[in-house]
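User: For my dataset I need records formatted as: sequence, then structure tokens, nothing else. Please produce one.
Assistant:
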Amino acid sequence: MSQTDRHIRTIDDVLTLLDDLFSPGADRWTEGGAEWWNEFYADRERPVPFFVAKPDENLVSYLERGLLPAGGRALDLGCGPGRNALHLASAGFNVTAVDLSPTAIAWAEERAAEAGAENVRFVCGDAFTAPLDGPYDLVYDSGCFHHLPPHRRVSYLALLDRVLAPGGHFALTAFAAGEGGMGSELPDAEFYRKGRLEGGLAYTDTSLRAIFTGPSGTDLTEIELRRMHARAAEDPAFGESFLWTALFRR
């Protein structure tokens, strides 16, 4: 490419340019990111808390308290080995579960076959460009959002606007800033100076509300936003207090 090339013409061109400011795999969701996650999921015996075959405690709680509909169509973003997708399927949802990593998808498909789950479809690819046949009554994200570079919040909000049904619910877990939190609390601009995401972005509850309920976001209605409740290893649900859990309705 010549130094005088002027190829920036669209929002997608700008987003791609910003993607390229990160070292290969550093943003963990582009093609290089898929390779990073493949290595991450390759050793199933690693002591990673969310490798366990059990759902998030907040998701279990939403269903038990009737905060989510009894069935419908659900999209699981960044599904990993499929633990939440399979729980949603067992609760009567028809689930589409998407992840960048072929290794994670293969593991999730094995779990689905073992469980005899027929109402879940796994898609390997980038959620922003994958063939997702919305609208969905529920979009669930357990740990995908906080691995996105700041400019890709634009793509994420556009995805929600495109696939979330009117009256549908959006739920996520994300790294919590502050005491006991996890993830980087650097200002957005600093990630571009460093060319890496420092393992993921930490959010405050105020910033999550501004992103998802403010007029410049998706203008969702908050139902609940709290720290995830920690759960012991023998508990049937997963829970770590360094995460926010949030539930919104469109």
